[in-house]
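Archive entry. Fields below.
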Amino acid sequence: MKRAFPILAILTAALLSYGLYQALVVAPTEKTMGDVQRIFYYHVPSAWTGGVLFFVNFVASIAYLVRRNTKADALALASAEVGVLFCTIVLVTGPIWARPVWGIWWTWDLRLTLTLVLWLIYVSYLLLRRFSTSGQTPVIAAVLAILGTLDIPLVYFSIWFFRTQHPQPVIGGGGSIDPRMLHAFFVNLIAFTCFGALVCWSRYRLEILRREVEETQALESLLEVRSSR
Amino acid sequence: MTNANPTGVTRATLAKDLRLEWRSKDAINSMLFFALLVVVIFSFSFDPTAEESRRIAGGLVWVAFLFAAVVALNQTWARELRNQVLDAYRVSPAPANSLFLAKALGNFIFVAVLEALMTPLFIVFYNLRAVGPPYQLLIVAILGTWALVVNGTFFAAISLRTRSREIMLPLLLFPISIPALLAMVEATSSILTGEFSAKFWIVLLVAYDVVFTMASLFLFELILHAE
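PREDICTED_STRUCTURE:
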């Protein structure tokens, strides 16, 4: 497994640079929106990666509650943190695109509001982990993650009924899209998925190491107390 | 182990909480005064008697109730920390979810009393009058209050395990409650203005209540035993 990490790192670097070239040079400029449309090659893949990471968080939380495996908890923490990061990228790149195209920075429509609420839920999850004084932080965090996931369909339906004016997905619309645009998009989609996996993996390894260090230090201080007696 | 009668546990705990509240009136007094302050402070930011205020009245009413409810919810479990009552619950064979149900029902009664006392004040201060069917307001109030209280009771138990727990409760409660809050506010506004039907929002509130009541009853044991 440890050998897979540098391989994934090299693959991600190659895909990201190829994706950058495809998005900025090869893909043609969109007719009505102009160059600002190119932000989509990063905006949508970030949203996808964030969504995948939140799903990983949900699965890892359930795995922790069932098996009480600390590695599952470390994965839950890592995926939530990195997921919030990608979600933040989505929330920042969206308004940058919306300002010249829609004429407004922000609108309270379905996908924007859903992303914002998701971001809020997972930030509260991270805050809880940060502020917890419990010896069983993983348990209460996992419970909150499950409640948060249960909430997502309800959030979706409530905002869907509230309003919607987001541009409908343009992928799969047929012959209207230049194949070079689609190519750039999918390359970036794969590159960002790898990138998300890579960052999440390093965060996970860091968390495991941090816990090991903590345990060793606790053990050492315990031994010191004994030998000094 | 679990030969304790679940409804008996619920009833005994609920009766105890109601008696405590009846004698001290801590929660209801602080909630009432807090809600009153919110009503007065809101009225400075717009003209409350204007006709267009009717559209935002639903939001104001629920924001006031939400903030006030947090005051009571924070006391739910903190009260049990004194004299190690919570530890006694933990070692007792009483099922955790009947304890949770008692606490949620108790909070429901407190917040319902608050709403019953505050609603006339809102009507007087904000010149409210329902254009749509008023019986629906009662349905929305019951479902909405339960939605707030069932999550609030659960998250109050979680925030007991954190530093600065009084701050933690709203930080956990508000993001998850967004769909319920949206449904309450929109349903109330559409009934007050009579412009739209509130049916969809009532259905959504029912779904929210069912999902989170089941989840809380199912998961509460984990929270109670997480020290």
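CURATOR_NOTE: The helical segments of chain B are 6-24, 26-45, 53-81, 85-91, 96-126, 135-159, 165-193, 199-225.
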